[in-house]
Amino acid sequence: MATLDGEPVQPDELLGLALLNYGHFTSMRCDAEGRVRGLALHLERLVRDCRTVWGAELDPERVRELLRRELAGQDGPCVVRVTVYDPGLDLGRPAAPARPRLLLTRRPAGSLTAPPLSVTAVRHDRDLPAVKHVGLFGTLRARREAQTAGYDDALFVDAERRVTEGGTWNVGFVRDGEVLWPQADVLPGVTMALLRTHGTHTHTHTQTPLTLTQAKTMDAAFATNASVGVRALSRIDEAEFATDHPVLDALRAAYLGVVGERP
What we know:
By secondary structure, the chain is α+β, with helices and mostly antiparallel strands. The protein has helices at residues 15-20, 39-54, 60-71, 137-148, 190-198, 212-215, 246-256, and strands at 3-4, 7-8, 24-30, 78-85, 101-108, 117-123, 153-157, 163-166, 170-175, 178-182, 205-208, 220-225, 229-236, 239-240.
């Protein structure tokens, strides 16, 4: 069931989101006990993006309250998405004072041991990459074309052929035991931030520009997001990677070792 500000959402209240597709969101994985890794970072994202997208302040305590309601009586791990949008948004006057509201949806969580991804490099720039917004047309089209070509997903590169991110995930690489993150205009992912904070006790983490050619020479590659944690990449185009690299195991252990927070 979807709720809007804590009440069952009505179909007409979703029309603005469906037809105009303007808003922002965060998705968080909740364990069976209702704990969320990086909850504070998810809340910071919602507050920050609300200022950017709507020019409005969002109360994080209100989000916590609605999360508690959503998770009451949950059965097993789940993914909760919090979408911030204005059902009354006017296509002709989007600068009018906004009344952003909170849409919460929940689905069962997938496995944290998902199989490796095969990806193909695609030239693509997301609109306003620092914001986790609902404008997913370009992302889904790139993913669809990648899957049509026999891959699982698309890896984005910019105009200079530098690696940026995946459609719904950040990407990292391993070289000589060091973890490398692309220095580029990307979404600041919560899982990436947790790994860069909690995974440094075993391996050095460095942010650096990486061309696609350089990326294909790495020892290992991986995707990160809140739903799957750390997921190995098996190949980028013709370049294959070790999916059982010990650094990937260490990163997974670091992620699983992060203590979640209850709303």
